[in-house]
Amino acid sequence: MQQILSVISTVFWGLVVLSVLVYIHEGGHFIAARILGLRVKEFFIGMPCRMRAAFTSKRTGTTYGVTPILLGGYTLVCGMDGESPDCLGAVLFFVYKKGKVTVSEISQQLHLPEGQVEQALFTLLDWGSIEEVKVPKKKPQVAPDALDATDQNEDTSSEEEAGVFQTVARDAQMRSPFDKGHDFSEKGSTKAGEPHPFSGSAEAFVELERSRTFQKLGFWGRAFVLINGIVINIAAGFLMVVLVLSCLGVQGVVDKPVIGEVADGSVAAELGLKEGDTITSVSGEPVTTWTEMAQALSENSKTLEPFSITYEQDGVEQSAEIVPKEEGQKLGISASVKTQRLSLPDAFTYAFTYIGMTASYIAQLLNPAHFQEVISQSSSVIGISVMANEAANQGIASFLLLAAAVSLSLGFMNLLPIPPLDGGKIVIEAISAIIKRPVPVKVQTIISYVGIILFIFLFIVLLRQDIVRFILGGN
User: Fold this and answer.
1) Pairing of strands 250-253, 278-282
2) What's the whole-number average pLDDT of the chain?
3) Dihedral angle at the C-alpha atoms of 366, 367, 373, 374, nearest 10 degrees?
4) Does residue 327 form part of some domain?
5) Does the pLDDT at position 151 exceed 70?
């Protein structure tokens, strides 16, 4: 039973750390997108899943919620996926003229291949310009005389789901629920699924929609959205370190020769030493710090010759003789500890130093000479969960320091120039800005697949490493 509770606790704290920190990362993208006036369709804790608890904001049109797959979070900023085929304007114009349409209907009316129509619809869905609804579609009925004995036992009225694409709600100014300032009480507003013809050209309609998505941004705007998740993770890690060091404090060793704990059955216990005793001298040499005392004890025990210590117990000075039985014999005492807090300037300085150390550590992944060393010291979700559970048992300060370390690592990992990480996407956007045209989606997809394969490989390596280390008890 104890083992089951331990596993549950480990999984719980691991999910808390990973879900919250990834959600914070995605929150950075969300905040940046909203600052720039972009449409954001969804903002969720947990990975995409049909089972979810959610609500949709009437003010922004964004759906907020949580899914059962609590391994992070995601935000859907409109315009970050898909291409812009030549027929995009014609398809958009047609949907808003009709209100509700199917792929085949658009294909027949506009004389376009269904594949091209589907590509255009996918882009418009991504932009938040239209929405898809599922409606029952009955299977074709077969004449009774065409059925054999087996077929007659089947239900010919069973239904499938067919995709119907429809308009989203629009006000008189063609603003959707995702657009700032929309007012559906205006005369001329329409509901989702109702026709709302655009008064201008198809090209003008497309440009209006594009202007409300990620597609409208230049390099610096796109870089701002992409890098803000990284910035938020680093800022969160920084603030957690400062909070712990300046407010909560950390347990630190007191550098005075005062005994904090005496181990049962140790030499110190046999001599009658107790917690709170102060050792004043070793072999007649005065000691004023724990460091001096520990060094003196170590040096004297190496000779295997008897030596004395003087100590104060309950205000009375006493002495004892120690006869080492082996070289380097331990006395069996530990230093006293207390909660120490830093001033705000010192906490800031330490936090900045810690950020620099983390950045330097992650950067070594790009150095082949240190890659294996960094990987051997890294952890997967299993290792993070185990450490999170241990830190939670030690107290809020330890837990926050671990969360800070994970948050900083997550931020700097995403800065690596490898798609599909944010750093890799920024590199692609930079290349697009330099060559003055978008990098083809097919090229981006291939590069992303290579990156995904690399990270799957690393995940497997780290998972195996953590299983051996934390579950099997190996090294």
Assistant:
1) unpaired
2) 88
3) -30
4) yes
5) no
Q: Phi, psi at residue 377, to the nearest 5°? A: -100, 5
Q: Which of 414, 388, 383, 410 has its CA nearest to residue 400? A: 388
Helices and strands per DSSP (H, E), number in the chain: 14, 15
Regarding whether 286 and 137 lie in a shared domain, the answer is: no
Query: In sequence order, which residues have a C-beta less than 8 Å from that of residue 165 and are 6 or more positions away?
Result: 95, 100, 101, 102, 103, 121, 124, 125, 130, 131, 132, 133
Residue where one domain finishes, among candidates 321, 339, 357 = 339
Q: Are 136 and 116 in a shared domain? A: yes
Which of 71, 46, 78, 43 lies closest to 57, judged by CA?
43
Helix or strand (DSSP H, E) at 327? none
Number of domains in the chain: 3
- Same domain? 364 vs 396: yes
Instruction: Select from 457, 426, 462 the least CA-distant residue to 444.
Output: 426
Of 132, 131, 86, 127, the C-alpha closest to 210 is 127
The model's pTM: 0.80
Residue 470, φ and ψ in degrees, nearest 5: -100, -25
Q: What is the pLDDT, as a whole number, of residue 157?
A: 44
Largest CA distance in the chain: 113
136 pLDDT tier (thresholds 50, 70, 90): low
> 400-423: per-residue pLDDT in tens?
999 999 999 999 999 999 888 999
Per-residue pLDDT averaged across 223-242, rounded? 96
Angle CA(145)–CA(148)–CA(154) in degrees, nearest 5? 100
| Tokens encoding 439 | 């990098």
Rounded CA separation 133/103 (Å) = 13
pLDDT number for residue 145:
55
73 assigned to some structural domain: no
Does 122 lie in the same domain as 243?
no
Which residue is listed with tokens 């239900």? 155
Domain residues for the domain of 146 are 88-212
Does residue 434 sit within a domain? yes
Separation CA 304–CA 335 (nearest Å): 24
Q: What is the dihedral of CA 424, 449, 431, 228, to 10 degrees?
A: -30
